[in-house]
Automatic annotation (TrEMBL):
Origin species: Oryzias sinensis (Chinese medaka)
This protein's UniProt keywords: Repeat, RNA-binding
UniProt keyword Lipid biosynthesis present: no
Gene Ontology CC annotation, any one: ribonucleoprotein complex
Domain RRM: start-end pairs: 13-91, 99-138
Name listed for the protein in its UniProt record: ELAV like neuron-specific RNA binding protein 2
Alphabetized GO MF terms: mRNA 3'-UTR binding
Coiled coil: none
Amino acid sequence: MFLESGSIEDSKTNLIVNYLPQNMTQEELKSLFGSIGEIESCKLVRDKITGQSLGYGFVNYVDPKDAEKAINTLNGLRLQTKTIKVSYARPSSASIRDANLYVSGLPKTMTQKELEQLFSQYGRIITSRILVDQVTGE
């Protein structure tokens, strides 16, 4: 879960793309998102030592309307065995650095919505996820 307490002016052109296929190249990422509109910059994040893709990247559009269109068009797109997630990237800032919160011992019946309702009183939740056992589904 990621909480944001300060008010930060969000960039409306810079996107983060998560869950990219391991073998996707930066050129393919740029090509996919370039089909929506003009890209100012594009970066596939790689491990500094091995050069392996870390499965996410950033795409910065010239026009905020293209960024919004990319979210609406490409978020949830299935690429190979992955379903990509496209959302606005948050600026790097001292107020959101080290703001990840990991919670264990949640009731097995807790839903995503219940989790967010529980924690939203403490600040704006940017993203949250309940980890699920792939075998049992719990």
